[in-house]
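Checklist before submission:
- one chain only
- standard amino acids only
- sequence pasted in full

Submission:
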Amino acid sequence: MKLKLSCADFAFPLVTHDQSLDLIQMLGFQGVDVGLFEKRSHLWPSREFRSLNKSARELARRIQDRGMVVADVFLQMAPDAAPFAINHPQSSRRRKTREWFRKTLDYANRCGTKHVTLTPGVPHPSESRLTSYRRCLQELPWYISQARDHDIVFAVEPHVGSIIPRPASALKLARDLPDLTYTLDYTHFTRSGISDLQVEPLLNTASHFHVRGARRGRLQANFEDNVIDYQRVLRRMKQINYRGWLGIEYVRTDWERCNESDNLCETILYRDFLQKTMKSL
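Returned file contents:
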C-alpha cells in the first residue's frame, strides 16, 4: 500500500479558494478533495456548471500548476442532504439530482479525477424507513452504471442522518449492491459511541477515506482528544492493500459544533502522524 494523502479544499473557508489551494500545496499534499457543496463551500455546483467545461479546466489548471491532482469530487446539492437526496420521494427532485450527477461526472473527467462521492440518501419523514431504503436500492444502480460509463469510481459516504448511519446498515447496503463503494469516515460512527472494531469491516468497501479526530458526542475533535485508532486503520489498510486516498477532512461549520478546531494545525498534526505511522508499519 502506498500512502496517498489529500486535503479538503473546503477545510479553510475563511480564505479564498486559491489561498486554500496554496495552503494545501505548502503543506505538501499530493491530492485535493474538491467539495462541490451548494452554498457552503468555495465552489458551488450551480456556479461551476454554468460553464462546466471552462470551470473544470480552470480548476484542473490551478491544481496542476501547484503540482497536485484532484483526488475526489464530492457533490452536495443543498446545505442539507434531504432536499435533493437520491431517494427523494418526489420524482422531479430525483431527476434534478441525476442531471447534476451527470454534470459532476463530466466535471470530474475534465478535472482529471477518477473518483466522485455523493451522500447515500436519507430516511424521509413522510414514509417508512424501509420505503426510503428500497428507493435507494432502486436508484443507486443507475449512479453506479453512469460512473462506470465515465470510467469513474462512484462512492457514497455513510454519515450521520443518512439512510446508513451505522456500520450494520452500511454493510447491508454493500451486500445488497456489491458494486457500490464507500467514502469511509469513521467519525460519523465514533460520534455515536460505535467502536472502531464495528466499523473496520467497512474498510473492504472503501475507495476513499476521510481522516480527522472524533470522540463520543463529537463528530469533529482535536488530535489530542481523538479516540479513533488510525494506526490500526493503516495496518488494516496495508493488509487489504487499500489503493485509495486518505483525505484529511477538517471542516468549519456550526453543524455538530465543527467550528471549534484550528483546521490548519489539526491538518498538520494528522499529516505528520499518518506519514510517521506508515513508515513504521
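Reviewer check: The two ends are 11 Å apart (CA to CA).
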